[in-house]
Amino acid sequence: MDEFVSFIPLGGVGDVTKNMYLYEYKDQVLIVDCGLGFADETMLGVDLFLPDISYLLKTNKKIVGMVLTHGHEDHIGGLPFILPQLPNFPIFASPFTSALANEKLKGFNLPNKVNMVGFEEGEKQLGDFSVSFIRVTHSVPDTSHIFIKTPVGNFYHGSDFKFDDTPADGKKSDYEKIKKLADIGIDCLMSDCLGMEKKGRTGSEMQLANNFFEEMKNCRGKFIVTTYSSHVARLNQIIEVSRKLGRKICFVGRSLMKVTDVAKKIGYMKLESGEEVLLEDIKRYRDNQLTFIIAGSQGQEESALSRVTNGEQREINLREEDTVIFSSDPIPGNEVSIYELIDTISERGTRVLYSPVTKNFHVSGHGSEEELQQLISLTKPKKLIPIGGALRHMYLYRGLAEKLGYKRNDVFIIEDGQEVLFRNNQAKLGRSLQAKNVYVDKISGEEIESFVLRDRQKLSQSGVVIVLSEIDSSTGKIIGKLDIIVKGVSLSYDSKKLGAKLFHDLNKILSGRKGRITNWVHIRNIISQVSERRIFKDFHVRPLVLPVVIEM
Amino acid sequence: MDEFVSFIPLGGVGDVTKNMYLYEYKDQVLIVDCGLGFADETMLGVDLFLPDISYLLKTNKKIVGMVLTHGHEDHIGGLPFILPQLPNFPIFASPFTSALANEKLKGFNLPNKVNMVGFEEGEKQLGDFSVSFIRVTHSVPDTSHIFIKTPVGNFYHGSDFKFDDTPADGKKSDYEKIKKLADIGIDCLMSDCLGMEKKGRTGSEMQLANNFFEEMKNCRGKFIVTTYSSHVARLNQIIEVSRKLGRKICFVGRSLMKVTDVAKKIGYMKLESGEEVLLEDIKRYRDNQLTFIIAGSQGQEESALSRVTNGEQREINLREEDTVIFSSDPIPGNEVSIYELIDTISERGTRVLYSPVTKNFHVSGHGSEEELQQLISLTKPKKLIPIGGALRHMYLYRGLAEKLGYKRNDVFIIEDGQEVLFRNNQAKLGRSLQAKNVYVDKISGEEIESFVLRDRQKLSQSGVVIVLSEIDSSTGKIIGKLDIIVKGVSLSYDSKKLGAKLFHDLNKILSGRKGRITNWVHIRNIISQVSERRIFKDFHVRPLVLPVVIEM
């Protein structure tokens, strides 16, 4: 019997974001996660990119299902772009993850919905894969590891986590379940490795509460915190301290309000009536009665915090008595924007606390070396594949495994698109699939998620048209034909004919330009504009056009 | 008697680099430092910028002299660009600083030379200013603070420093001299503030020696260190450890070789014959007999370290047994380039040590809060002006001064171009002079300094022509007339006529373009090309053309 399982990362290895992984058995594909990639400051004008799913589009295999590990954008943010391109299949996720994902999909008129799975539920059968969700701690509620049982072998998909034994929400990682599953035998552990640069253990979320209390007690003005929107445990800690000290909470930023709405709806955030104040009502309170939680901790130019700092948010005026806390760390590449923001806040004379001035108000959601080692000890895998990190983290992870007695070739350091085959207790490299850069249209708005809100109205009126093109970066020419995917647009159209017309329109413009493409935003804008014009001319509707460009 | 001294930073406050400060008394101007600014990754295509000296070009006052505090590029790198635009005046600096500066000026055919001042020498009289050099510790040899005595009051110019009581070269800060000068009375302390984000004291340079020793002892392959080229004390520590462990030293990178040549010439770096190996001779040694010191610790694309990592430096092949150490910290904005470089090194399987994996191989050259406080205690100034930091550092510095009992208005937080007037024991804000962005031509080459080498040949053949223009960024039009400064070009020309011709040539091209200027590199390239063409046409010579553009 020559059966095998193959593991293929379409995104998520070697560059941290845009997580998406395939597990294949016979003619069946199981997908884990469907994330967005974030561009750093050096990628001019490009905000977001997607995993390259061209293999999934071409394969004859059947997608039997998708599971989502947790609700961060780099694990679920690709759903609205990618689901319309794929056939229907069941999707499963933990309560908070599924609530966030479904909120994101609202308005896209897709048949797919993300089904909720409780951690106490048994295995889910997806084709020949049987999957279990294991609760772990991280910086968003209900983060899961996934145990994947197949006829050939068992896999532990251990993406982003830390082992925090005093988590702020009291929900610890389920060590017992990990051990029980490990007893069945684990052929390969796919493990988070982002924290490998730090020795020892990552601090517990609980240690922050007292620091917030002391700082808030001494603050004579507004108490302002910026942090990651989906870090509900952090938000709850700040709410709890504010409650003790008699401050009302005001959320600022649409992404933040969206996440907190979801958290409140499923009971993960408890605010009594009167404890939360809307921005338009804050004038009824003195400054020292208010805590503001404001989106924009990465210094994003359009974020709520930038608007407040630059005086563009009329209702909030930074004063000397106020305190601003960055309850976050810079994502590499964002330093310059963050420090500029801090400089501008300093200029108001406002007290501003951030790393490196203090480490008191943030701990990472990723486990350090000791916790990564602990997961290896718990799962006792035969092979290991570091995921969710850059190359330097992956090589450090291999070093850790070697220290624990693994042989160097027990650890696979692979790139996006590189298949690993598991057969007869052996593992080896398989095919190397295409994993190109797929950029999506620049989305402005205060944070990644807000475009969904902004575009929903348009969507609910006219639906969405995705224009997929492959463009030769050296000539700017379209390669092959365009693919058009229409969802929720009430028009009778011939996809091939529309594709051909758009191809003609676009090539007329693109073939005029000369030299290597350096500004992809501009190219995507052209595609948007030309497509909108053509669609309006032929069908008299104005759907949202999302250009997806594959750079060749 | 209504005499006053005015202090004007032309660069160096609010953005760390391009340090240049004026002290004025009656019709006399004393200049402190003449630095370059470095662009971060977000400034597209712009590498370098200069302090705006338009005030100096217009004023009727007399420049009585210039003093340089230390040999870093952000304090002396502007000399070749700025000196040709100014009349002659005496320049003074410490031994190493003057040696580096004169090396930089070689080939520019300028009448100015930087005069060496020993720290033990008495006051220098420059017009009515009397200046003393005080030895302090920093990350380049012979760093000075400057005590400036005037008929109106005394100033302590305390730029970049730390108080390291066990410096690697044994040359401690001269606390006695500071105290003695403080006894005369100090009206204002201009102080470094970059280290304000860190509590306590910055570690001593000496603590690194043992860490290098342990790591080198265990290294079975090549031992590779990258650090700041001018950090001679660090280089000497690495040389000393290599000597003990029987490794030869090989310097890679032109900027590094230039600095070490200067250091060897004045006896600051001692390498016995046979201890240093040239790149072309390394094949005569085994890997474990070699220590490489390679330029490029900030991940610069064209640097020696990038070339080695990318396999473009034939002679050096990274192997698994090698160790690469980043003996440096990322300058904010360089993180992405540095981490990419580290990823690529990891991919070779090479051991690579960097922050945050370890803090064992670098300490900052800037004092932390306690050392900055110590300078205040030593100098007992009446007023304080933080310099050499971003706004956030300056406001933190004000907080420190307030903690020490100063009143808030004893501390001046000013921007480039903002004058502070000192009169009758009082200080107040004066004029606000223009301090625009002045970009200089993009310079490629492995590090900032290397352009001098590359261009020297051209210079020594044909001299230099500086073309100064003010360009309206919204229209791309030249404002007013061009200024032409010619040095070392053997031709008889009429500066006005040449300026008018160039203006005509350039406007013909620039007026054709539309919209806001976003690519200044392109504009400067146009100015270079057009000027070179015109000069060759009219005079049949090919001098080096340096376009200096003031963005309006």
As a percent range, the share of strand residues of chain A is 15-25%
Oligomer: homodimer
The name of the CATH superfamily of the largest domain in chain A reads: Ribonuclease Z/Hydroxyacylglutathione hydrolase-like
Fraction of residues of chain A in helices? 25-40%
Using the coordinates shown, work out and report the CATH topology of the largest domain in chain A.
Metallo-beta-lactamase, Chain A
CATH architecture of the largest domain in chain A: 4-Layer Sandwich
Using CB atoms under 8 Å apart, which protein chain pair has the greatest interface? A-B, 28 and 28 residues
> What profile does the largest beta sheet of chain A have?
8 strands, mixed
Number of helices of chain A: 15
Average of pLDDT of chain A:
88
What integer value in Å does the Rg of chain A equal? 24 Å
The strand line-up of the biggest sheet of chain A is 8-7-6-3-2-1-20-21
How many individual domains of chain A? 3
The first-to-last residue Cα distance of chain A is 40 Å
Inertia-based shape of chain A:
globular
How many runs of DSSP E, i.e. beta strands of chain A?
A: 25
The secondary-structure class of chain A comes to alpha/beta
Notes on the protein architecture:
Chain A is α/β, with parallel strands linked by helices and 552 residues long. The first copy, chain A, folds into 3 domains: 5-200 and 364-438, Ribonuclease Z/Hydroxyacylglutathione hydrolase-like (Metallo-beta-lactamase, Chain A), CATH 3.60.15.10; 205-353, Metallo-hydrolase/oxidoreductase (Rossmann fold, 3-Layer(aba) Sandwich); 463-551, Ubiquitin-like (UB roll). In chain A, 29% of the residues lie in helices and 23% in strands. Chain A has 15 helices and 25 strands. Chain A has helices spanning 54-58, 73-76, 79-82, 95-105, 175-184, 208-217, 232-244, 254-265, 304-309, 335-347, 369-379, 391-403, 450-462, 495-510, 520-539, and strands at 5-11, 20-25, 28-32, 37-38, 48-50, 62-67, 91-93, 114-116, 124-126, 129-135, 144-149, 154-158, 188-192, 223-226, 248-252, 290-294, 323-326, 351-353, 383-387, 418-423, 426-432, 438-440, 464-471, 478-487, 544-551. In chain A, the strands form 4 sheets. An 8-stranded mixed beta sheet of chain A has the order 8-7-6-3-2-1-20-21. In chain A, strands 4-5-22-25-23-24 form a 6-stranded mixed beta sheet. The longest helix of chain A has 20 residues, at 520-539. Chain A is globular and about 65 Å long. Chain A starts with a strand and ends with a strand. The A-B interface holds A 14, 40-42, 44, 197-198, 332-333, 335-337, 339, 342-344, 346-347, 349, 352, 356-357, 390-392, 394-396 and B 14, 40-42, 44, 197-198, 332-333, 335-337, 339, 342-344, 346-347, 349, 352, 356-357, 390-392, 394-396.
